[in-house]
Amino acid sequence: MKPRIKILSLLTCIPMLAVSMTGCQPSVYEPTVKVNAKNLLTGTSLSSVSTAKPQEDFLCHMAEVSLSILRKEGSTSLGENWLFSPLSFMMALSLTANGAENQTLSQMEAVLGDDRESLNRTMAYYREALTSQSPKIQMANSLWMKEDGFSPNEDFLRTAANYYRPDIYSAPFDDSTLSDINQWVSAKTEGQIPKILDEIPEDAVLCLINTLLFDGKWETPYEEHQVSSGKFFTEDGESYVVPMMNSIETQYLENDLATGFLKNYEGGKYAFGALLPRQAGSFGQFLSQLDGETLQTTIQNPQHEEVCVLLPKFSFDDSLSLQEHLKALGMTDAFSGKDADFSSLGTTDGPLYISQVLQKTHIAVSETGTQASAATEVGFSTTGSLPEILVVSLNRPFLFFIVEKESGALLFLGTFSHPEDFNS
């Protein structure tokens, strides 16, 4: 069997706002999770690197790639709920791109929307700028290398260490390593995702993992009288009774395809948002017509008008296997044992190629905020007879997202189409 690289993009979401710049990083690396595997970076001096705030065209490209993944998933099962983390996806694959060369690298850069050096600076910016304790926003990376059969490239490890600050482990890739990986994931997501792998494939020699933890409370929590039962209508015409949260928001979103809103988490720098198609029964058409530039422009240009919103309480977990999506986007060589060029990752007995790109997510939306464990924020509706007020009623399928408002970075993007996934 040919050795493979297994890339795992893992995340947990818990929304909350207030971003704080972390400033300089510690000069000497110390591990934050204790596992049996040997951490190769312990005590290593780390260099400071230049960072770069993402440009508008990069954000639009990131949104378009994310929408294309949701479109493809929805085309086969439109009535299901989907959740994807653009930021975790970009972080994991940008790290991986540092081991690619020639056409493999060119294809990865085309899918990711920038050259490798620029991606490194942008991801370093996100890693620093989006890390916060209040609210809790935490990103982490790790590399797990098989101790027999894989020799890492020192330049790759140096770049990874300085820009991405990963834990780097040498391990036997046996049951103890499986336990270590799942323990690392559970620790970094505070138990919201207790397990990422059921087994380590026999031919795996390298695993790359990214986690994103987002835990936030609403800037204005819902009071008991603002929660009542309401109906949610699916695309096939069925209706379900769900808990709906009612509020008046002041950030109205609108474009030719949809109307929506932003609702701040405490601190005001992060927000939950949703877009509802203008026409009922047209959610699939809406997704096919919405492009990344329109989505990004809409999010970053809210109208400061009062809007009456009904948001259903709900939660769900999701798991996406992304390799076929990446192939469809043009990143084909990376998954081919014959064509992949990951010579800058390191050396092994056979050709290195990516065997899997997996992302697991968890989201929950309630009266107090959004937490990673199971929940999707969706829902809009009107209450009473308030004259001259805009209304967004999320009582049918809609698109939702969690965004860092200053940079426009999409941390999570999802669709809510069916309340049977609701967990109280």
- From N to C, what is the helix and strand string? EEHEHHHEEHEHEEEEEEHHEEHEEEEEE
The name of the CATH topology of the largest domain is Antithrombin, Chain I, domain 2
The CATH architecture term of the largest domain is 2-Layer Sandwich
* Biggest sheet statistics: 8 strands, mixed
* Overall average pLDDT: 83
Provide the number of structural domains.
Answer: 2
Folded structure, characterized:
The protein has nine helices and 20 strands. With 424 residues, it is α+β, with helices and mostly antiparallel strands. The protein has two domains: 262 residues, Antithrombin, subunit I, domain 2 (Antithrombin, Chain I, domain 2); 139 residues, Alpha-1-antitrypsin, domain 1 (Roll), CATH 2.30.39. Strand 11 and strand 12 form a beta hairpin. The N terminus is likely disordered.
Summarize the structure.
By secondary structure, this protein is of the alpha+beta class. The protein has helices spanning 56-76, 86-97, 102-112, 116-129, 154-164, 175-188, 283-289, 292-300, 323-328, and strands spanning 4-9, 38-39, 82-84, 136-146, 150-152, 167-171, 204-217, 227-233, 239-249, 252-254, 258-264, 270-277, 307-312, 314-321, 346-348, 354-365, 369-371, 390-393, 398-404, 409-416.
List the main descriptive attributes of the protein structure presented here:
alpha+beta; single chain; disordered N terminus; globular; 424 residues; 8-stranded mixed beta sheet; Alpha-1-antitrypsin, domain 1; Antithrombin, Chain I, domain 2
